[in-house]
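Record type: ASSEMBLY
Status: queued
Input:
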Amino acid sequence: MSEQLSSLNIETLYCDHHGWLQGWLRRRLGNAGDAADLAHDTFLRLLGRQQRETIHEPRAYLATIANGLVVSHWRRRALEQAWLETLAAQPEALAPSPEERALVLETLQEIAALLDGLPARVREIFLFSQVDGLTYPQIADRLAVTVNVVQKAMTRAVAHCYKALYAQAR
Amino acid sequence: MDDAVHSHSGRAGPPPGQAGAIPDAVIGQAVDWYVRLASGTHTEQDRAAFAHWRGAHPHHAQAWERLQSMGGRMRGSAVVVAPTVTHAALARAESITGRRRALKSLIWLGGGGAGLYLVHDRLPWRAGLAGLAADVHTYPGERRGMVLADGTQLMLNTATAVDLRFDAHERRILLREGEIMVATAGDPAGRPFVVATPDGTLVPLGTRFTVRHDGQVPARLPYTRLAVTEGAVQVRAADGQASVLVNAGQQVDFSRHAVQAVADLREDGQAWTDGTFAAEGMRLADLLAELGRYRRGVLRCAPEVADLRITGAWPQDGPGASDRILDSLQRRLPVRVDRYTRFWVTVSAR
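Status: finished
Output:
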């Protein structure tokens, strides 16, 4: 039972498994609206794949793609929640407009994705340098570490970012 | 997510027609130069040496260009989000994902057809800025979040009563009964922050934590439970002298006479802050006692089923949430739920 991926077969896959996938996602997410969106995204991902692959277990295959989407969905939600909570803690905070919300979340997501996998301290040092624009002695002072520690953390973080951005490109 | 990152930078991929990958050694050199030039303490000689290196080979220039573009985007982010907000949001997101991950292991165990799930929409934090001196409370089954005038976030779990005493010298929250989550904010006026219960006082040191005071548990003396998820909190029992420091990832019970031994934080005790009622291998009798906090009336557990164990997580917000949890127990355990009136419910063997 193997299927060659073509748009025709994706249509078959869609007809046969879309309902199942949506139910599967709903159980994971606890929310029918998000489940419908992610089911849709899963098939979009499938369409976006250029290589012709042979699918032996269509549901397992779909679930693997969908699972990745669920993980980034939660991550996005966590970031959004964290941002709103941070904002709420600001004394003069105003409710952000939808446009501002989208822009800020996109920016935070980009930074979070770039720094994903780095220890909190290394990430902090990198942000102080690259976002706040502090010098190494200033960072060292603020975090009560040596300049050498700051330098090492920066080397690690910058190399990490390069890899994250250009791993495939080389 | 990677896609999101790539799509922003038109220069992300190698220029078409460029032959050969950049060697790892060159990338390493570029990283070293970047780190040196970002220090804020580099010299003119450094600059000159760098210019020489960059001109020495097209690969050098190309690797450098990529790092520059990354740095530009980081600096650009400050225009959209204030740097302090970026720091705080990323750190907080990590702690949220961590808590969620811990909870997730519970969720899958619960699986099955019972419709167990996790985290609905978060509370609207901005729902109301509480009046300074107003006393606040929630009804059974209700959960409420608010931001106090100093920026501190306060969330009340079910059946909770709190007094807010903010004056020129002190910010004090008095927990009379129930459970709260506090995420403190620094006070511009520098006033100390104190949470008091009838059992003692807590002084947070820049922090996020939950406090629960049970004053009327049958067969148990009144006690308070403190659980710290960020920072640290100092505890002192009302009649005690010494104070105990409780760090992030720890919890402790105390009465007005004594502070018990500090223990590891139990994640299922934190689930309510995400709107989830969670149990991890919990005895049915204990689960029903917990659930009783979320509803009015009597919820009785028959002795023959008291020791059944259950793991699961359910949404706790909204009308009828505790009834749905009871229904789900009936489906998953060999028990029956009898409702004599809305206020008198027993759970016994089927």
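Annotation: DSSP finds seven helices and 16 strands in chain B.
Annotation: Residues 1-19, 103-134 of chain B have pLDDT under 50 and may be disordered.
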